[in-house]
Structure formats: structure tokens, C-alpha cells
Write a structure and sequence with these properties.
Elements (H helix, E strand, L loop, with lengths): L60 E12 L2 E10 L7 E6 H14 L18 H12 L10 H19 L8 H8 L14 H10 L10 H45 L8 H72 L5 H67 L20
Antiparallel strand pairs: 1-2, 2-3
Helix pairs in contact: 6-7, 7-8
Length: 437
């Protein structure tokens, strides 16, 4: 698994750190304005709680997904509880589908044109058809496995991811005040939405055109370091997320094989008297021990997936959004530089028009830079704080599961040791004696 401290380099032990200087907060190491910067080179101080102070206002809503999830055909319906924090009121409960959240994400991106915003990343749509369930099952249990994991087993994970998405939106200083979000959270009925959202072909052309500016040299060293850091960190956290998921999937495959073995041990031979009876009882006891071990490994996998697995998946998507924002800012920078060059080359009769275009490009670029810097600072504060929290929950969960497994397996071992075996003084039949008729 990727070590967060490998990318977060603290200052030297004897170096005095000035938290008020922008030059000392390199985004290429631990992110600009990382909270609680310590002068120690040990990675332990980086695990300390992030600073509770923030320039962002408190969220206006509290959002909670309930366990009441239903499926109607290919549509999965989530029950959500919403409380207004900016005014007194009761808890509002309503039902939403994934497509409602998808349309909300589209509206937020379309109506907030500020290029410096790091938009929260909407999780991918859960598989609802049999083909999707089969593909997900093969990915988790192996391509040769014929078992299908039910949809309900994934609903808890989907609820956590979608709840985190809405939580990041309502806590955002700009998106949290958007009228589309208010309409989504304050009305019992979902806002009208199109049947299917489609991107025009020009959108793909624009994305490829903007990608040409990805390697452009930044005029601001602070953002240049942030771009390099985000690109490197994005690759590392994606790799860590994939490898962590492989570990979880390996445990799920082991759980399934242990279940097959426990079931096979419960198959009895003919008769419950004599040696056959003893054999059946011994296998039944061993099968119970296998079920106990199976449950323990399954708890370890689910705990890891709900803590560290969720964090890695979330921030691998968040880094993509940060890189997208940095690319938008780079495109504005290139446009501003081109406008400046156009002024120098403009003829006298077109100089005023060129200056107007340059001033507009400069204003848009400066506004984007100001918002982007604030967004990046808040992003790193949240990233480090949630990394610490997820790491603590992950370690505590694994320790708790290990202790429970140790206790359960110790009891199983004692039961097997105490199993009463019959004492046979003399065998009436020797299977190796072939001379007897």
C-alpha cells in the first residue's frame, strides 16, 4: 500500500518553519498549506489532527443515506435524510435515484463556470443489470468463478460513496449555496431531469484541444509544483487503490472457498453409529470451525474496504478533478499569454480591441488563480485529515477483527482437542492384510 508519508516531506529538524510564508509551503511535497506542518522529519507528526480553523463557512445541510435501499427494475432507489443547519426545521426524508444525483452533478458543473473550482467527483453508476452483476462478480471472485454477488451486498458501499459526494458538495463554499442543490435537497420530489444525459461530440474535441496545454510551463512556481505533485500523486494513489482492492478481492475468494469446504464437510457418510457416526461428528465440528474462520476473514475484508479502501477510491477520483481544474487554469494562462502577444503584434487601429481582450483574459485568469489557490489549500487540509482518520479506523478495525478471530479460533481449537474419540483396543479388520480370506 502507498505510504502517505513517502510523498509528504517535512522540514529539516533544525529548520524553523514560518507558517505565514507562502514560499515554505511547497505543493510538490505535502501540498500547499498542509495543516499542522511539523519541523520533525518523522512521519508521525503528519498524522496529527488537521487544523480545525478554516476560511470556509459551515455547511448549510446535513445529509444521511439510510439503510432503506430498494430496487425497481434497473433503478436503485436511495432513501435520504436531510436536515437544514442554517435554520430550524424537521428532518426531510425523500427518495432519489442515481440518475437524480447524476443530473445534479451536471447542473452544478454547467452553472458554475468558475474554472478554479475543484468539483467533487460523482461515483460511477452501480451495476443494476445481470451483465453488470456478473462482471463485478468475476472481478471480485475471479474470472473462472460462476457465483454471482447480489446487488444488496454492494448497496452499503454505494450509499457511503454517494453520501460522501453530497457531503463534499454541501460543505463547499460555492457549490453549497447553489440553487440547484437547494432544490434537490429541500423538495420531496426530485427535480425534472432528461431521460439520458449525453455529451456532444464538440465536448470531446474541446477536451482533446485543451489537453495540448497540459505540458505548458506555468508562470507561477507554486502552481508548477502543485501540477507536478498532483500528476505524480494521482498515479500513486490509483496504483495503491487497485492493489488494495486486489487484496480485498483475494480475501473474498478465500472466504468463498472456505464456504465450499465447510459445506463439503457437512456431507455425512451412511449411518450415525460406530466409526461413521464419529467421523460425521468430527467433520461437523471442523465445518463449524471453518465457518468461524470464514466469518472472521470476511469481517477483515469488509472493514478494510469501508475505511482505507473508501479513502483510496475517493481521492483517486478527487485527484482527477484537481488535475482537471489545474488544466483549466493552464488553458486560461495560455490564452492570456497569447492575448499579450496579440497586443504586441496588433496594428494601431486594432490595438484597443486587442487590449480589451487581453484585460478580459487577465481578469479571468487572475480570478481563477485566486479561487484555485483557496480550493487547493482546502483540498489538502481535507485530504490529510481524512487520511489520518481512515488510517486510524483501518488499523483499529483490523486490530479488533484480529482479536476476535484469535478468540474464536482458540475456542475452535479447544473444541477439536476436547472431541471425544473412541478407544479401539484391537482392530477386527486389517485393510493391509490381503492374505486372509
Amino acid at each position: 500500500m502507498m505510504d502517505e508519508s513517502s510523498l509528504d516531506v517535512a522540514a529539516a529538524p533544525d529548520t524553523e518553519v514560518d507558517l505565514d510564508r507562502e514560499d515554505d509551503k511547497s505543493s510538490a511535497t505535502e501540498g500547499p498549506d498542509s495543516p499542522d506542518i511539523s519541523a520533525s522529519s518523522s512521519p508521525v507528526p503528519m498524522m496529527l489532527p488537521s487544523s480545525p480553523t478554516t476560511d470556509f463557512p459551515p455547511p448549510r445541510y446535513s445529509v444521511k443515506f439510510t439503510d432503506n435501499v430498494t430496487k425497481d427494475g434497473d433503478a436503485i432507489k436511495y432513501t435520504i435524510n436531510v436536515r437544514k443547519l442554517h435554520e430550524a426545521g424537521d428532518i426531510l426524508t425523500f427518495v432519489r435515484e442515481y440518475e437524480d444525483l447524476q443530473f445534479l452533478d451536471h447542473q452544478l458543473n454547467a452553472h458554475n463556470r468558475q474554472a478554479g473550482i475543484i468539483f467533487p467527483s460523482l461515483p460511477i453508476k452501480p451495476a443494476t443489470d445481470p451483465a453488470g452483476a456478473e462482471s463485478r462478480s468475476k472481478k471480485q471472485l475471479g474470472s473462472n468463478n460462476r457465483s454471482i454477488i447480489g446487488d444488496s451486498s454492494q448497496w452499503g458501499k454505494d450509499c457511503r460513496m454517494l453520501e460522501k459526494y453530497l457531503e463534499m458538495i454541501v460543505s463547499h463554499p460555492i457549490l453549497g449555496k447553489d440553487q440547484h442543490l437547494s432544490s434537490f435537497l429541500e423538495n420531496s420530489d426530485p427535480p425534472p431531469r432528461p431521460t439520458k444525459l449525453k455529451k456532444g461530440w464538440l465536448s470531446g474535441v474541446k477536451d482533446r484541444w485543451d489537453a495540448r496545454n497540459y505540458s505548458a510551463k506555468d508562470c507561477d512556481e507554486w502552481f508548477a509544483k502543485e501540477r507536478d505533485w498532483a500528476t505524480t500523486y494521482n498515479a500513486h494513489i490509483k496504483d495503491a487503490s487497485d492493489k488494495f482492492n486486489n487484496v480485498v478481492n483475494a480475501r473474498l475468494r478465500l472466504v468463498q472457498q472456505m464456504g465450499h469446504l465447510a459445506g463439503a464437510l457437512n456431507i455425512t457418510v451412511a449411518g450415525n453409529e460406530g466409526a461413521n457416526g464419529v467421523y460425521n461428528k468430527l467433520n461437523t465440528g471442523f465445518s463449524g470451525c471453518m465457518e468461524t474462520a470464514k466469518a472472521g476473514i470476511e469481517n477483515e475484508a469488509s472493514t478494510g474496504e469501508a475505511t482505507m479502501g473508501s479513502y483510496l477510491d475517493l481521492y483517486s477520483r478527487c485527484l482527477e478533478q484537481e488535475n482537471a481544474m489545474l488544466l483549466r487554469r493552464t488553458c486560461l494562462m495560455v490564452e492570456h499569454e497569447n492575448a499579450c502577444k496579440a497586443v504586441e503584434k496588433a496594428r494601431p487601429n486594432r490595438e484597443e480591441a486587442a487590449k480589451t481582450i487581453r484585460d478580459e483574459a487577465e481578469k479571468e485568469f487572475q480570478e481563477c488563480t485566486e479561487v484555485a489557490k483557496s480550493e487547493i489549500k482546502a483540498f489538502h487540509q481535507r485530504r490529510l485529515s481524512e487520511f489520518r482518520q481512515s488510517m486510524l479506523y483501518y488499523v483499529e478495525g483490523q486490530i479488533k477483527c484480529s482479536r476476535e478471530n484469535y478468540s474464536a479460533l482458540s475456542n475452535c481449537l479447544n473444541k477439536i482437542k476436547d472431541f471425544p474419540l473412541p478407544q479401539v483396543k484391537e482392530s477386527m479388520f486389517d485393510p493391509n492384510d490381503n492374505d486372509k480370506e
